Automatic annotation (TrEMBL):
This is Biopolymer transporter ExbD. Its main location: membrane. The lineage of its organism: Bacteria, Pseudomonadati, Verrucomicrobiota, Opitutia, Puniceicoccales. Keywords: Cell membrane, Membrane, Protein transport, Transmembrane, Transmembrane helix, Transport. It is a single-pass membrane protein; Single-pass type II membrane protein.
């Protein structure tokens, strides 16, 4: 009697997963990252001869905030520089032409007349400067 070594075909699906391709992909990615990581680190410390810019151009960044203090004696102090109203208008015109207008922090003594505030706010509105911060101190 001859033996038959053939398996009987079953109608059940094969539920085994072939993960060989996934393991190969994982090892390939691991090798790629192991090779590329030292190259990235070298690139960060590589010496570069940078081009030279025109020294006449200013490297100053526009101010993000400007302090305007209303003086009791009349006049204003902008970032510590004392000036009158005409000089303040020139400075506000300069701020209004900037691509990003700075935040204007307004400080004044508690006894400053209200009309002085209104005059300054009218100047800011005239130059379309709308980023305003009225500085106060917390109630103690």
């Amino acid at each position: 009697m001859a033996r038959s070594f053939h398996r009987k075909r079953s109608l059940e699906p094969n539920s085994e997963l072939n993960v060989t391709a996934l393991i190969d992909l994982g090892f390939a990615l691991l090798i790629i990252f192991m090779i590329s990581t030292p190259l990235i680190e070298k690139e960060q410390v590589m010496e570069v001869d940078l081009p030279v810019a025109d020294p006449n151009q200013s490297n100053e960044a526009p101010p993000k905030s400007v302090d305007i203090t209303i003086m009791l004696s009349g006049g204003y102090r902008v970032d510590g520089v004392q000036m009158g109203e005409p000089e303040l208008e020139d400075r506000l015109a300069e701020y209004s032409t900037m691509p990003k207008a700075p935040v204007l922090s307004i400080r004044a003594d508690a006894d400053t007349p209200y009309q002085t505030y209104i005059r300054l706010l009218d100047l800011l509105k005239e130059y379309k400067l709308s980023k305003i911060n009225l500085v106060t101190k917390p109630d103690e």
